Amino acid sequence: MAETALHTPGKNYTFGTVLTAMVTPFKENGEVDYESAAKLATKLVDDGCDGLVVTGTTGETSTLTDEENLGMFKAVKDAVGDRCKVIAGTGTNDTAHSIQLSKRAAEIGVDGLLIVTPYYNKPSQAGIQAHFEAIASATELPVMLYDIPGRAGIAIAPETIIALSKHPKIVALKDAKADYQSTTTVLANTDLDVYSGDDGLTLPLMAAGAVGVVSVTAHVAAAKYRILVDAMLAGDLATARAAHFELDPIQRAVMSHVQGAVAAKHILNWQGVLPNTVVRLPLVAPSETELETIRTDLREGGWEI
């Protein structure tokens, strides 16, 4: 069993502690809006984020070209500089393609890589391990594994994560598995920095030893996540629990009714942060009923929408 020290505020975690899984803004004609992406990145850092995940699931990476992915990495890195960590979503279900994209991201100067479980192929656990190890060995950048079986179609077994933790470049895990026992096993047997990949599970995962969150809802509530995460790192459960409850209706608004990128773009547009709500197919705009449900949740959270 790994000897894990109590996580504390101020420690220099490789990727920070409050990370937003950024949307990719588009222009009305469907082209990537790099200027809006840079402005959004700057706002998120101003609001309390110390890490940004660029072109992950929420960034609609599966409908971006390689050049668009790379353009987003550069736009965000240029905008925030050293104010926060920029983690590039370079994982695909093609190991060779992922390696190529990761190498090009490294040339741009990103601070790390987010590598998702290879989706659709449904490899064995040995194949999953080999996939991650090959990508992690291809650059000098630190790597965050992304375990999200609901989208990938297959989970990374805790035993596989434990084996992968021995790779010198694999330092973190974005846990979107919603399997507390699996997460507990990983935390008890590795020194990985574990991040909640489910916004609403940030508090319980941090109670077990996670260091923070990679959040979609942080687009519109980064300051509140900063309070929750810092309180948990400091052992102040009362403050963290209060923030957890205050975040609940906002999390529901962003994550419960439509795909997270769709909801986040609408709320950011309502706030005047993004100029439009454009997403790429197969994502589509919410219905009026869905939009009203989102507004109802936001009003419950004290927002005037």
TrEMBL record:
What's one GO MF term for it? 4-hydroxy-tetrahydrodipicolinate synthase activity
The pathway this protein participates in, as annotated, is: Amino-acid biosynthesis; L-lysine biosynthesis via DAP pathway; (S)-tetrahydrodipicolinate from L-aspartate: step 3/4
Cite the EC number. 4.3.3.7
**Annotated site, Part of a proton relay during catalysis, chain positions:** 57, 120
Keyword Hydrolase included in the entry's annotation: no
What keyword terms does UniProt attach to this protein? Amino-acid biosynthesis, Cytoplasm, Diaminopimelate biosynthesis, Lyase, Lysine biosynthesis, Schiff base
SMART domains to which the protein is assigned, alphabetical: DHDPS
Cross-referenced InterPro entries, in alphabetical order?
Aldolase_TIM, DapA, DapA-like, Schiff_base-form_aldolases_AS
What Pfam families does the entry give?
DHDPS
Query: Which amino acid positions bind pyruvate, per UniProt?
Result: 58, 214
Q: Give the record's family classification.
A: Belongs to the DapA family.
Please name the PANTHER family in this protein's record. 4-HYDROXY-2-OXOGLUTARATE ALDOLASE, MITOCHONDRIAL (PTHR12128:SF66), DIHYDRODIPICOLINATE SYNTHASE (PTHR12128)
Q: Which NCBIfam families match?
A: dapA
In UniProt terms, what function does this protein have?
Catalyzes the condensation of (S)-aspartate-beta-semialdehyde [(S)-ASA] and pyruvate to 4-hydroxy-tetrahydrodipicolinate (HTPA).
Q: What is this protein called?
A: 4-hydroxy-tetrahydrodipicolinate synthase
Species source reads Paeniglutamicibacter psychrophenolicus
